[in-house]
């Protein structure tokens, strides 16, 4: 994602004390995950299995733990611990600071927007016009909220991603330096949790409506006019296209794509990509028709 | 439900600029949904499929998008968009205002009731005696709470209903102007969400106990002495009769009735009405005995 | 658990107006549940079915509703209502008071720990160094938190246990006088609820990481380096050993033991103890391999 700062390859190499391959003035605009990385951004890779994918991705700088040939027009940062150094670099691009005031002084807020009591708003947050932020909502740093948005009481927007590297002796947290973008006309219920992206944005598309106690993981992108019922959990890095309907207590595993106008019946567990314009049911979620046949077959067997 | 104001048919017609059929002084006490509407109240209907039901309901005023014969002793409001106009009328009956103080000055509170810090209390709220409202609870406008009630930290009482009309180009929210009634000796855990009724009351019956992270939808009525475990989700317009036990992570679809003393085992999904005095399991929830037979049968088939 | 006060048998008997059998100076250090009770502590029993178990437990004082022979080296308290009297005794050992300030003045807090706005902290709480407590978190009385702990926004630590005695005419709450212990390097997501022990401690082991909207019941002990995904619910009195991984929306019934390095796949329901080093799936949760075979078999039957 676009960060407020630009660095050169040499500057980044010096921050993490790494060797580099490429022009010392090679420009770096930010960091990102492999699925969403763009020109000008760094991606990290620390397992030979993923070297090719990282080197051939849209990333123009690859933070890697082996000295390999540098692809044409790209640059490399050589590190003995790319995860640790990626974390360190992230801290330089964005400053998530822990201030001790309820509402940061740099809040950019539109006309007719109402912030009720008990709301916490971090730094560099933008909120459009005609919004209502109900009591005790927490909005973390860098969140961007459009017009006509309603966020009901107790919801937490922009919490840290649940993203760890298993070091054996411990789980090391990957710092999340992305943000949350909530587009126009979105409504979010009470006590929801929408995590911010690790390096990119978690996005709730225009006109989508979320009920209460919903979990949206880091870097997940929800399309336009989706309807998501209470207690649904969507893991990180998912893509939910436009006009998808997800009923109560459904779970969606990480990195899943659900195509436009799919309907997921209540309590289903989605563990693989789903085509659009169909109705799904069960765990693992399958087309509702075939799942219901299975249930009927089983019932007959017993009788 | 009883609203604080009374209007005449002519006054309501003038508010929404609608034609009316009936005595211009015909009294209107409020609005309601078709399942709970009473004499003196308006119901709306915008689909021919439901015209008969609405005209024959307990409603004495029907807001309808076709000029039909007015039933004896009733009145009609003719509108090209009953949903839009129902919303507009609701705003006149009850004033949900967004004040900027933690505890409204008109709070009616009983002896020995303790409100801990960080609690938000909206307008026209009543709380009985010997209650404990733990930190950071949010209690919205018009909520009524009995005696000896405990609400643990972070719960949200009286949030907006999740109720939209699909306009094709957008989902339009039906304004919720009902409330939540929590009767004597009820206890509610932490970070629960209990939505207010759309036009009527969401009710938690005397002596019922709710664990943490529970969702109760709009207009749902929970009976006396029910026990509801953590992370249960009950959708809108359900009736849960007395002494029902619902174990963890159960989901109940909207408009379901569960009769007295039913027991629903953990993680079940209730998608049809259930008789009382029985134990249920699975999704769709069925009598536990037959569901367990199915599981055993399936297991044998594999071996 | 260790309480701050010590009583004699005679003193306790006088508080609850009960007959006692044993030396009047017999020392009593606290109360506890039968599974965790230790020397010096009281256990209560009110059903003949459990008399033997209680009398032979580690408890050295048994609060019982029948005059039985006192085991060697122990003492008895004879009560017509052991539940009521256990509750009364608990109130004497620990004083959970309801103060009206956001952060208690007796907070014991380490260097570099940051408490963000809107946080409530009860009495006798200890927080180590280098911790971050995000906005609107609630930490109840007697909670102990180690070093390098992160608790994200809106989580509630140390709420009352969901533990009732069915009296027929009502559910009577067992007062929870235990606490929550969160060890070093633990991270807890947003809007989680971790209940305190009834008489002992609910414990989150060193280095364990919890995602958002997770429920941990009273007296449950989570081991070291566990990974628990969003919307998991673990009931009371469970033991989750070290390095267990629990994916999203899993439910674990009360008093279950899950051995070290077990992996529980998403949405599973755990209703019996599970061995370590295996992967489980489904409800009731079984080894994933056999569950997947069952699903495949069922699918074939239909085709």
From TrEMBL, chains A, B, C:
Gene3D superfamilies, per this entry?
Hexapeptide repeat proteins (2.160.10.10), MurE/MurF, N-terminal domain (3.40.1390.10)
Tell me where in this chain the UDP-3-O-[3-hydroxymyristoyl] glucosamine N-acyltransferase non-repeat region domain is found. Answer: 26-87
Matches recorded under InterPro entries: Hexapep, LpxD, Trimer_LpxA-like_sf, UDP_GlcNAc_AcTrfase_non-rep
**One Gene Ontology term from the biological process aspect of the record:** lipid A biosynthetic process
The protein's UniProt keywords, in alphabetical order, are: Acyltransferase, Lipid A biosynthesis, Lipid biosynthesis, Lipid metabolism, Repeat, Transferase
Q: If you read the UniProt record, what top EC class would you report for this enzyme, in one word?
A: transferase
Q: Name one GO molecular function term.
A: UDP-3-O-[(3R)-3-hydroxyacyl]-glucosamine N-acyltransferase activity
Q: Which GO terms describe its cellular component?
A: membrane
Q: Which residues form a coiled coil?
A: none
Q: EC number(s) in its UniProt entry?
A: 2.3.1.191
Name listed for the protein in its UniProt record = UDP-3-O-(3-hydroxymyristoyl)glucosamine N-acyltransferase
